[in-house]
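Hi Y.,

Following your request, here is the sequence exactly as I used it, all 334 residues.
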Amino acid sequence: MTGDGRVRWGILATGGIAAAFTADLVDLPDAEVVAVASRTQASAKAFAERFGISRAYGDWASLAEDADVDVVYVATPHAAHRAAAGMCLEAGRHVLCEKAFTLNVGEAQELVGLARSNGRFLMEAMWMYCNPLILRLKAMIDDGVIGEVRTVQADFGLAGPFPPSHRLRDPAQGGGALLDLGVYPVSFAQLLLGEPSDVVARAVLSEEGVDLQTGALLSWESGALASVHCSLTGGTATSASVTGSAGRIDIPFGFFHPDHFVLHRDGHEPEKVLADPAHGPRTSLKHEAAEVMRALRAGETESPLVPLDGTLAVMRTLDAVRDRIGVRYPGEVD
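Below is the corresponding structure, written out as tokens. Let me know if you'd prefer a different format.
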């Protein structure tokens, strides 16, 4: 970090999510984007010119070795997360890595091990966990506003269609609905209930062997159940609902970055709980960036909002779902 407390960021990859994150990051007064890297110099240079970034690298290693970079945001497709984030951690950089965190829990454990052995900060970019309204919802549920949680329902589906050449259909890039979209419903359920004790799942697979749509039923020893669904074949409601022994909370379209939710308590009129306008637009990614910078200034190596053990638990569930539906990616071993 600089002497005045600014955190210096590097951006690894130049796709859509990297652009969205960088656009929000440059609006934070205590953040400075100093470098960007891509697999090609041309792509890195174009991205740097778009956002006024001084250094553009045509390879990942140059960014990882740049001592003026405090933390790297890894925004590659998830099949490359292990290599990209691992390179940065080994070079001494802190890392914010997009979700799904890795292809499988084995890769995730390797990254967590690297971060902990090198004393580096590592966090999954699960922006939902840093969203102020989601944090308020969780606090209300933890305080018992709807009693004991009995069921969670959540879905995320895109209409497509996606051609076989698209990254979402490409096994080599970790394609399929589950890792790209299903990570949100699973993460939402586990935010509220922790890691499930049992997983049942079914899917429709593409000719390439990735899941076009997947449904899973997660269960806990408490008796709670979660029904989660993801799809590349239809635009779903992308909503969520949490039912407890004394009420229910409904979150409408875009449940993972809501502008409001509705609290239904037994014996009371429905209550609409709105996001604070001061927190910015619902699509803002600044909250996860702010959490990373808060943690770095505090000398923390992981975030209490997105703990690494929680990320590993989500990856175990995603692995269990893939085991049930028969999806395996190139290079994975038994």
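The mean pLDDT is 96.

Thanks again,
Q.
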